[in-house]
Design a protein that fits this description.
GO terms for molecular function: sphingomyelin phosphodiesterase activity. The protein is α+β, with helices and mostly antiparallel strands. It has helices at about 10-20, 75, 85-95, 110-120, 165-170, 210-225, 250-260; strands at about 35, 60-70, 100-105, 125-130, 145-150, 150-160, 180-190, 195-200, 230-235, 270, 295-300, 305-315, 335-345. The chain is about 20% helix and about 25% strand. It is globular, with a radius of gyration of 20 Å. The model is unreliable at about 1-35, about 35-50 and about 345-358 (pLDDT under 50).
């Protein structure tokens, strides 16, 4: 939800004043720039003498806006101090999750600290993908980061062509950063070739009309890179407030309608009901968590006997910390969900292995 523009006022404002234009035209471009691709199936010869690894029974996923800003932004938007300490503690708190998606991991030093600490906590147990990177008139990258305990098969990125700009929103504009989307396909189980498509995004914080255009770009990106045989999860800070679905044409209703058209099995808003933590996600210090703008959606394949993501429970985690002057590791709450991996013909016994956060 962070207002990117105010961060970069010192060295970016004058540059963009000369070259930036008002909000770009409502264009939806090709969703395939900056692509890194590896084969979608891993071929490994497993001899009869090689014992098969136990098939995973659960998948734990977390999405967190970590508010790790570039150093130039600190005089203007340093709402959370102690960034080096927070980066280390964020990694410690999230080290138990199978799939981690982060927003606002902008600062390269602190982003690497999160990665290094997570690897230290797990014995180099994570595969890493990030992007989109800095491009064009954007002064920094998109701040998206994914870490997976399972091998990464493919990654793709897309930088949104529509964003708020300096001439229309001044130093509060989000166009200073290359906001966009990141796709990561992870191989959860080798023998069965079970893969999960993970899509992460961070939409504009300033303009509903720009968010609508970015959402169209995001949906095109998802449609292009998803595989219908795979379960899919959509994660991130959408900057769209959750509201009851009662027929009104709200941003949230448009969000749900847009993503439901992507697959034959509709996406489910996993944290619509949480088992732990406040209902909101935008304010870690508020009793109610503020507005719910961070999401974790999931959808399954309609293929017969395909393995399904079955929700066990979802949580909003404030991740409070008295060592941080502002009281929490980020201004947002983390959104977490544990899934059971269940074949369609198998009985579902939703039990949780989770412990309350430290």
């Amino acid at each position: 939800m962070h207002r990117v523009g105010s961060w970069l006022a010192v060295y970016g404002g004058l540059c963009l004043l000369g070259c930036a234009s008002p909000n770009r035209q409502a264009t939806i471009g090709s969703p395939t720039p900056d692509t890194v691709q590896v084969p979608s199936r891993v071929q490994i010869d497993l001899s009869q003498s090689t014992p098969k690894p136990a098939r995973p029974q659960t998948l734990s996923v977390v999405s967190y806006n970590v508010h790790l800003l570039p150093s130039v932004a600190l005089p203007f938007a340093g709402e959370r101090s102690a960034a080096a300490y927070r980066a280390e503690k964020i990694a410690e708190q999230l080290a138990g999750y199978d799939l981690i998606a982060l927003n606002e991991a902008f600062d390269a030093t602190h982003r690497q600290k999160v990665i290094d600490q997570l690897q230290a906590e797990t014995g180099n147990g994570y595969h890493v993908a990030d992007g989109p990177g800095r491009s064009g008139s954007h002064l920094i990258g998109g701040g998206l980061l994914v870490l997976s305990k399972y091998p990464i098969l493919e990654t793709h990125t897309h930088t949104y062509q529509n964003s708020t700009r300096f001439l229309t929103h001044g130093f509060k504009s989000d166009g200073f950063a290359a906001k966009g989307a990141l796709h990561v396909r992870v191989l959860v189980d080798l023998p069965s070739q079970l893969a999960v498509d993970c899509f992460v995004t961070h939409l504009d914080s300033q303009s509903a009309s720009v968010r609508e255009l970015q959402l169209k770009e995001f949906c095109q990106f998802v449609s292009h890179h998803q595989h219908s045989d795979n379960p899919a999860v959509l994660l991130g800070d959408f900057n769209i407030t959750a509201e009851p679905l009662g027929g009104a044409e709200t941003e949230y209703a448009n969000l749900m309608t847009s993503i439901d058209q992507l697959r034959s099995v509709p996406f489910v808003d996993a944290a619509q009901r949480v088992a732990y933590g406040p209902a909101g996600s935008s304010n870690a210090l508020a009793d109610d968590g503020g507005r719910r703008i961070d999401y974790l959606f999931y959808s399954n394949s309609d293929r017969p006997f395909a393995t399904q993501l079955t929700r066990v429970q979802a949580r909003h985690l404030p991740l409070l910390d008295e060592q941080v002057p502002e009281g929490s590791l980020s201004d947002h709450l983390a959104v977490a969900c544990e899934f059971r991996l269940v074949s369609k013909h198998a009985a579902v016994v939703p039990t949780s292995k989770w412990q309350l956060p430290r």
